[in-house]
Fold:
Amino acid sequence: MRRLALLPGLLLMVAACSRAPRINQAEVAVGDRWNAVLSTPAALVGAVRVTGTGWMGADQDPSMSRAGITITGAFAGAEHPWHVHVGRCGSNGEIVGDVSAYRTLKVGGSGRAESTALVALPFPRSGEYYINVHASPANLATVIACGNLAPPAR
Structure:
């Protein structure tokens, strides 16, 4: 009998916790970087399954931007070149900045790798950009992960 008396209170608690949180839009900080979610192109799923995140943000030097990437699901010991490009995934856009600015991703035992780059590009306020990850230094033609960069919220 005592358990039945607790049931309505328990149901109220569960219902209260399952509501979507209310976000006060005035308290949400405006992002100052472009962000991407990376994934393996559909044609390669089954052979490889790399996911990750990437970003591009302003540097202290107004003529430069910083970019960063983290991937997971790669083969331990693999090395993967990566770049920020102009355009959208699959468009073969030109690389942003000098290729030498991008340190190759070196995958650790957990299948994870990360890197950053400082590129000669004033922080963009518009345009289209994407990040891609290549199969290897010897196989730049095969992209194993790609993500379109979304501009900062304004």
